[in-house]
Amino acid sequence: MRRRRSTQIAAALLIVSCAGSALLLRTVDRVRNRATLQETLYVSSPKLLKRLSLGYDGLLADIYWTRVVQYFGTQHHKGDGDYRLLWPLLNITTQLDPHLVPAYEFGSAFLTVPPPQGAGEPERAIELVEYGIRNNSDDWHLYYDLGFIYYDQKNYKAAADAFDRGSKVPKAHPFLRIMAAQAAQHGGEPRTAQMLWTSVYETTHDPYIRDNAESHLLSLTADLQCEELERTVAAYREKVGRTPSSFGDLVRAGMLRGIPLDPTGTPYQLDDEGRVFVSQPADFPYSEKALPPGYVPRRALGTRNFNSTN
Amino acid sequence: MSSRIFYIAANTLREAVRDRVLYNLIAFAVLLAGAAILVGQISVQIERLVVINLGLSAVSLFGVVIAIFIGIGLVSKEIEKRTLYTVLSRPVARWEFIAGKFFGLSGTLVVNTLCMAVGVFAALLYVSRQLHASDAWVLAAIYFIVLQFVITTALALFFSSFSSPLLSAVFTFCLFVAGSFAEDLRGFVGLSHGLQRWLATVAVYAIPNFSALNVINQVAHGDGVSGQLIFWNTAYAMVYTLAVISGAILIFEHRNLK
Q1: How close is the nearest chain B Cα to the Cα of A60, in Å?
Q2: Which residues of A have a CB under 8 Å from any CB of B?
Q3: B156 in contact with chain A, both atoms CB, cutoff 8 A
Q4: Other C-beta atoms within 10 Å of A78: how many?
Q5: Are B60 and A66 a contacting pair at CB < 8 A?
Q6: Dihedral sign for Cα atoms in the order B201, B207, B208, B209
Q7: What distance in Å separates the CA atoms of residue A36 and residue A56, rounded to the nearest whole number?
Q8: Residue A47 CB partners (closer than 8 Å, separation 6+)
């Protein structure tokens, strides 16, 4: 009888104390500052953490990567653009496990996006991906990510270089070479772009990519020829004192051997202001300089639409 | 001779099972199943990595804890319960008793690890939907973990042959931690001079090199383990264990059990 009574009292105490501790914990959480709960990096040295992990650094890196994702998600949801811990967390994660490729791929995206959606720290994103490339030089995805960070920064030369480096990695996606050529073209480096597009044209077995490369090469050639012709028009203007009314004036002045033809064999057009452009702009959808004023080209679907996780 | 060692080993294994040592498998299964299901929801693209990293780290930690806490009681418990006197009054040599105990606990850990390995592969199959050829390297990591257990068991047995269970646990755990820092200790040797360098060099060879036996992160990324490393790690673990067990036998042979 006495034993049964003590069992009942112990059971009641157990239930009451469990409920009480849960309630008290909720109160403690309310009293504590939110920053204390979430935004503290107790150990900021990756080297110290690596040693403390006793060799289980891979597991610790996974935990830190999960923390990065949770931190970014929480701050993104709050929307105040405060991502102070994002870089230190990513730094720790990648130093604990330099081969954790998702941390570079997604981490750089988290860092690049401008506030309040992201940290708006593209320089750190570049630093992160460059570190990733140093440790995983055979993974073309990282060059692809680096190229797009530069592309977003409108640093087309660096973007072209990153894509080009990536295209040389074994088993790299063939589109990287196309991205390199396109970035070089955007960056106002037509000679580099021409070289890269020629390389794509000569090495691809895909008819779509081959047609695309050919179209880019035609547009680039037209751009270069238009530039050259406009320089001739400028020289004529300087010599004669007026803009030539047609290419015939330039031929008569001995500055051209004949009416200039675009890469498809159609004569170029010359307007009153001395601008040179193609007659059939639909044949040169990727041209930057040879299109008639006001013409909007219809281009093929963007090359970024391929699956980057291949 | 060998049959006596076998009986002691079998009895040690039976005793461990009776002591519910294998109950840790339940905790391991819950941990791994939870990780496999939850990680995909709270993290990005590391489901497979977490299963391997968490699974193998848990195999290692659970095993080391078992090796230490069972290992330290192998001799002292027999003395406390006075069963050691019954065993030694029969035609059983003291070294046979130590060897039998060592093989018994090592066998328990191998059985435990095999069950956990099945769990790791099941979780891997669950998150990846299929096993890849590179997953076979997980077996190499598990083999190295078993080698760690063998060394840890030998160390626990060594300390328990002359010390109290509490001190034996502390000594073994400290050596496990120091062994995990073996690579750093080697770096320290390169930086130090004179007596310090000499002492550090002695420590490098005296402390078990557990860091060479840890390839968990490597196999988690699908990287292979060279056959040479497997061979030399096996040889190292065997010779080191032999040295520690010999030391334990030497001390136990001369220990006054009255």
Answers
A1: 9
A2: 51, 54-59, 61-62, 65-66, 69-70, 97, 99-100, 102, 105-106
A3: no
A4: 11
A5: no
A6: negative
A7: 27
A8: A95
Question: Measured on CA atoms in the order A298, A304, A307, A310, is the torsion positive or negative?
Answer: positive
Distance, CA of B192 to CA of A300 (rounded, Å) = 65
Beta strand residue intervals within chain B, DSSP E: none
Q: Does B187 touch chain A (CB under 8 A)?
A: no
Task: Output b/e per residue, A152-185; b: 16+ Cβ within 10 A.
Answer: eeebbebbbbbbbbbbebeebbebbbbbbbbbbb
Q: pLDDT by residue (tens digit) across A204-227?
A: 777 777 887 888 889 989 999 999
pLDDT for position B56: 92
DSSP character at residue A98 = T
Do B46 and A100 make contact, defined as CB atoms within 8 angstroms?
Answer: yes
What is the distance between the alpha carbons of residues A291 and B146, in angstroms, rounded to a whole number?
71
Of all helices (H) and strands (E), which one includes residue A277?
strand A276-277
- Side chain identity at residue B115, one-letter code: C
Tokens of B212: 């060479």
User: What is the token pair recorded at B105?
Assistant: 């606990």
DSSP state of A261: B
Least confident span in A156-170, B37-51, B201-215:
B37-51
Distance of alpha carbon A125 from its chain centroid, rounded?
Answer: 10
* Nearest to A172, CA basis, from A24, A310, A12: A310
Please give the DSSP secondary-structure letter assigned to residue A137: T
d(CA A226, CA A217): 14
How far is Cα of residue B165 from the mean position of the Cα atoms in its chain? Answer: 18
Determine contact, residues B41/B14, Cβ cutoff 8 Å.
no
